[in-house]
Write the structure tokens for this entry.
Amino acid sequence: MLEVLDLEVYYGDLHILWGLNFKAKDKQITAIIGPNGAGKTTLCKTIVGLVSPKSGSIIFEGEKINHLSPAERIKRGITILPEGRRLFSNLTVRENLELAFYPFKEERKKMQDRLEQVFNIFPILKERQNQLACKLSGGQQQMLAIARAFVTNPKLLLIDELSLGLAPKVFLNLLDIVKKIRDMGVSVICIDQNVRQILEVSDWAYVLEGGRIRMEGEPKELLNSEYVWKTYLGGH
């Protein structure tokens, strides 16, 4: 599905990602964990084209996509759910979802079918489709952000800090929805500070520190790793 090879990324003179190699397989949830400042969000932004690498390759479905703009990558099926939701707060739930179709003229005729599919996954959004986004709870706003990313039928969905500002129970409910999206055939890359919960729903995981991959493996292996336990799960 997605492969990143020897990726080098700078912000000005600041070296952020160092020769990074990374894969996200088809129809799997791939977790990226690590401390703040590790380069996780930069990796996401580079994959979707918001940041340009100095060198290295981003390969999607067997094709190098470094030259593609963010809009072109979206049309290829790469979508990001950025940190902070970024909804149009003074538009209704339905209007937020409909706006997601704006870059996809050829897909607009399928909009109603896609909206119904989204409303089946998020029945609360169907109930509140005519309510302003700013009137939703934090959990419902995050649901709307996921729905907006999903409504255009992505092949790869990148989710940055899903748990931000949410109660633990709400976050766990959203993770169940992410698993449903995976089971519908969408590949997912999840970045989050809630290490245990993210690893428990993932199929493969990477530990990113200082712009380099320190570890990778099956989530169960990482959860049982002494290093992950001591560094991220409070073990002694």
User: Anything to note?
Assistant: DSSP finds ten helices and ten strands in the chain.
